[in-house]
UniProtKB/TrEMBL annotation:
Part of the ABC transporter FtsEX involved in cellular division. Has ATPase activity. This is Methionine import ATP-binding protein MetN. It comes from Cellulomonas pakistanensis. GO terms for cellular component: plasma membrane. InterPro entries: AAA+_ATPase (IPR003593), ABC_transporter-like_ATP-bd (IPR003439), ABC_transporter-like_CS (IPR017871), ACT-like_dom_sf (IPR045865), MetN_ABC (IPR041701), MetN_ABC_transporter-like (IPR050086), NIL_domain (IPR018449), P-loop_NTPase (IPR027417). Pfam families: ABC_tran, NIL. The keyword Nucleotide-binding applies. Homodimer. Forms a membrane-associated complex with FtsX.
Length: 356
């Protein structure tokens, strides 16, 4: 299957006050048709420049950008217009025209595309119904909540029936409940309309809830990419581990471990929860009983990534050392286990530790 978006060794260099700035550095990436693809990174990682290269608002310094079978690299403005018509864009701050009604905002790209008035009005009604704002057609943006404004933005982005939708930090101005509503709408756009979506964000929660695949950016480079669950469950790069640790808060810091020791006797152990441990709480308790030791949860957190569990639980274990050692060896055959030793030298696969 031909990729919807294909980047080959793409770089973008800007002239900065103190010299050239390489905002995107040798990125090679394929985004398949029908995917919801997340691009995640901290501020300055190059995410927004990357999305502007995809919709040809920026021209690459080097490399090749192909969108929906059309190579954008080197095209003149006249050639770029039809390519951009197949790409919808959702903005962080909505970018609605305050002087126009909701219906007129959605109709604007259709008017630019010279659709007949009757056809425009029919399409606007259809889109407002899809995003749940049929009753807001005659209102103005200032009369809407943030979530409603973003729904208008999504309807406007879908006006010309694009095959590709780009969302640049589309939920970062919204509260958590409204964010979920907008992400659920984007899920519908993908599933019901078959639109490929590229989500640019610094929020792991957005990627874990919405995306199928993810690329992690740092200093203009894609440092890690793949299936969302695989990348978050088995992070290879420090920046990915920082994202996961900051989002999950599932592993105790050394100062927290010290406080846990003051409150709980026994050995403190953190056990990773992965999809194969979907019933890990039952499995762990069964194995505790099987090895004749006591254990209770003293810290942890589990979230869902693509409806699959991810996180860790920290236990205080009591019983004979030999029995605890056998229990930990048993678990290590199935998942990651880190023992927090009194001297702070955690025993376990340090290369897989998550968080800071």
């Amino acid at each position: 299957m031909t990729a919807m978006v294909s980047l080959r060794d793409v770089s973008k260099v800007f002239d900065g006050a103190s010299g050239p700035v390489r905002a995107v550095d040798g990125v090679t990436l394929d985004i398949e048709r029908g995917d919801v693809f997340g691009v995640i990174g901290y501020s300055g990682a190059g995410k927004s420049t990357l999305v502007r290269l995809i919709n040809a608002l920026e021209t690459p310094t080097s490399g090749q950008v192909v969108v929906d079978g059309t190579e954008l690299t080197g095209l003149k403005e006249r050639g770029l217009r039809p390519a951009r018509a197949g790409i919808g864009f959702i903005f962080q701050q909505f970018n609605l025209l305050k002087s126009r009604t909701v219906a007129a905002n959605v109709a604007y790209p259709l008017k630019v595309a010279k659709w007949p008035k009757a056809k425009r009005e029919e399409r606007v009604r259809e889109l407002l119904e899809f995003v749940g704002l049929s009753d807001k057609a005659k209102q103005y943006p200032d009369q809407l909540s943030g979530g409603q404004k973003q729904r208008v933005g999504i309807a406007r982005a879908l006006a010309t029936s694009p095959a590709l939708l780009l969302a640049d930090e589309a939920t970062s101005a919204l509260d958590p409940e409204t964010t979920k509503d907008v992400l659920d709408l984007l899920r519908r756009v993908n599933r019901e309309l078959g639109v490929t979506i590229v989500v640019i964000t610094h929020e792991m929660s957005v990627v874990s809830y919405l995306c199928h695949k993810v690329a992690v950016m740092e200093h203009g480079k894609v440092v890690e990419q793949g299936d969302v669950y695989r990348v978050f469950a088995e992070p290879e790069q420090p920046v990915t581990r920082r994202f996961i640790g900051a989002a999950l808060h599932d592993r105790p810091r050394p100062d927290v471990v010290a406080r846990l020791r003051e409150r709980h006797a026994g050995r403190i152990v953190t056990i990773a929860i992965r999809e194969s441990e979907a019933t890990a709480d039952i499995i762990v308790t069964e194995r505790l009983r099987a090895h004749g030791i006591d254990g209770h949860v003293v810290f942890g957190g589990i979230t869902e990534v693509n409806s699959r569990p991810l996180g860790s639980l920290t236990f205080a274990l009591g019983g004979p050392d030999a029995a605890i050692d056998a229990f930990l060896a048993d678990l290590r055959a199935h998942t990651e286990v880190v023992e927090h030793t009194p001297d702070g030298d955690d025993a376990g696969p340090a290369t897989k530790e998550v968080g800071a």
